[in-house]
Amino acid sequence: MEGSFTGGDEYQKHFLPRDYLATFYSFDSGPVPEAEMLKFNLECLHKTFGPGGLQGDTLIDIGSGPTIYQVLAACESFKDITLSDFTDRNREELEKWLKKEPGAYDWTPAVRFACELEGNSDRWWEKEEKLRAVVKRVLKCDANLGNPLAPVVLPPADCVLTLLAMECACCSLDAYRAALRNLASLLKPGGHLVTVVTLRLKSYMVGKRQFSCVPLEKEEVEQAVLDAGFDIEQLLHSPRSYTELLTRRH
Fold first, then answer.
1. Which residues bind S-adenosyl-L-methionine (predicted)?
2. Which residues belong to the annotated binding site for S-adenosyl-L-methionine?
3. pLDDT digit string (tens) for 183-200?
4. Is the pLDDT of residue 241 over 70?
């Protein structure tokens, strides 16, 4: 499997953010599985970071891709957010939205839905400005490194977030287990890891390109999280095989 797995070089050369966004985050295409995935994620994140949920000073999002929706809830409860991705193009796409540059992707429908969950659907533009103010940096990351943000070293964080990324970055179950330990190293003792994983997925398409995933079972994810030094505090499982885990580092 490792020989045919889509590696970092392939992502850097061939992963096109606009093709990815058009495939998975096209908001005018109706109730398709991709839209249901986004809704499930936003609802999970609202439960995790909403009133009475996680809060703190610093949050690191690993494998942000070209998307910002995953930190819409967290920007209300964390003061300093780091976005990160492996590819240059994805980081450029993030910077374009953060700086309100011409041609930046329109996340308004996702922002509106996040605000609806918070009971503030008519103040979505304030949410966008809040997020732009709280995101302090966009860094390169590689979850397979002992320090996933190398060469940058950040102070230990209160929370690490990673959505739909680890199963794409890791070529095997062993690599996935090692990557979770690497993410744990970014956290303070008692800090939280929040992760959403697509189960049993072997690959996905972006435009005409196929990208590999390591197919994971729910029990394998749970055991890997426990072995990385976390306690599972919350597990949400979607019938469409998405699993969100909220965990605390020992």
1. 20, 25, 63-64, 69, 85, 90, 142-143
2. 20, 25, 63-64, 69, 85, 90, 142-143
3. 999 999 999 999 999 999
4. no
157: tokens are 């964080």
Element (H, E) at 211: strand 209-212
Residues annotated within a binding site: 20, 25, 63-64, 69, 85, 90, 142-143
Which of 59, 13, 68, 39 has its CA nearest to residue 154?
59
Do the strands 187-198 and 242-249 form a parallel or antiparallel pair, or are they unpaired?
Answer: antiparallel
Q: Answer yes or no: pTM beyond 0.85.
A: yes
Q: Which long-range contacts (CB under 8 A, 24 or more apart) does 51-54 make?
A: 53/77, 54/158, 54/159, 54/192, 54/194, 54/246
pLDDT tops 50 at residue 1: no
Residues 6+ apart with CB under 8 A from 141: 62, 63, 84, 85, 86, 148, 149
